[in-house]
Amino acid sequence: MTERITKSMAKNIYYGGGTFALMIFIALSFDTVHQIPKRSNQQNMTASVVAGKKLWEANDCVGCHTLIGEGAYYAPELMNVFQRRGGGDEGAFKAYMQGWMAAQPLDTPNRRKMPQFHLTDKEVNNLADFLIWTSKVNANEWPPTIEG
């Protein structure tokens, strides 16, 4: 008895393995599509959150900061800045953001400086709402530390 893979056996392995891999891919895609609405916090997306996201993009905040691990690593991760600087209190966080944004750039030697964007109070509140909304997205406990 020879122990060779025949052409017919190879064809069955190819088609069977390919079909199995395709079925796994479809099942995982289906599961992902069904979990996104629960994990994305999209039910709490307001006009202010959308405006804050547009400000985030227009001012290229991702050029320095990361958000949910995406972006540059020049400045801190901002997904948990709501808990880190506002303690989970929206009023306190918005007041912090107003003060922080107005004080930029800080005159601290040997530290990176954030530019002054000259945002209005409403724009800073929109940005704060976007960061609050982002902090409530289920990202599997990302970032791993409170300091980002």
UniProtKB/TrEMBL annotation:
Coiled-coil positions: none
Annotated Cytochrome c domain residues: 47-135
GO molecular function: electron transfer activity; heme binding; metal ion binding; nitric oxide reductase activity
Enzyme class, spelled out: oxidoreductase
One Pfam family matching this protein: Cytochrom_C
Keywords noted in UniProt: Heme, Iron, Membrane, Metal-binding, Oxidoreductase, Transmembrane, Transmembrane helix
Protein name: Nitric oxide reductase, NorC subunit apoprotein
Record-listed E.C. numbers: 1.7.2.5
Membrane spanning stretches: 12-30
